[in-house]
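Working notes for the structural subgroup meeting. M.R. asked for a predicted model of this chain before we commit to crystallization trials. I am recording the input and output together here so anyone reviewing the notebook later can reproduce the run.

Input as submitted:
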Amino acid sequence: MDLLMLLLSCALCGMTAALGIAVHRLRLQKRRMEDASRQIADYILDRRTGGIECNEEGVMFRLFHEVNSLVTIADAHVESERQAKEFLRRTISDISHQLKTPIAALDIYNDILRQEAANTETVQEFVDLSEQELDRMETLVQSLLKMAQLDAGVITLEQSPENLSELLEQIKGQYSFRVKQEGKELILEGDEQDILLCDRTWLTEAIGNLVKNALDHTAQGDRIHIQWQQSPCLTQITVEDSGSGIHPEDLYHIFKRFYRSRFSKDTQGVGLGLPLAKSIIEAHQGSIEVHSELGQGTAFTINLPIMTKL
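Returned structure, recorded in token form:
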């Protein structure tokens, strides 16, 4: 009987101890959960960054690890949104700044037109100037819209096999009047049978911007040479001119939006042609590089991978 009582007493003590340990562990887990809850609340209220601290293993560790993974993903989304907002802020600021000049010029021209309404020659002169500023504004807005579409990823390139010679002949035709008017020469050189898988509309825009840039920085008698060649894995297109060249200080900045060189004599450009060309080429999984010497000319080289249509 005494032995039975002893065994029962020992069992009771063991159960009491086990119950005490369980209660202690539950209290610890409760405190950890409350602490984790406070950390999550602080994170939501933007009073702290990072995840939940947990140095133990087991179910709690796995739970907190998953929460920390969600925190990391949320932080990445927040940072992405912050960068998008900052980009939008800078873009709006740039647009506002760029539009101020032509709008101010149009105001001045209109004032002069009102004062000189009877002078036909003066009216015609400032009507022409007004038209130039309106064209400049239209170019700015259209370029910004195209870049915004590319940046937002809302454009799907409609790639199809295109004859490269015909595509470049089309670009030459677009600028033939200006080339003739300015006394320059535009030369095409390459295999007329070469085929390139591309979005014709967008690639024409990119190469056209390089041709326009070359025309803007060449003088009467200068030439612009468009050459292309293909290898088994690469199509290379070079737009080279014999113009004024790019100052070494500007070479690392020419693809930045709205970049204006202090050495450039071009006062009409909006600084979006080259960045837009770069964005389009990169959307084709290609790259663009530039080589230039002051007084000798500039060469832009486009490298496009040979891809088969899926």
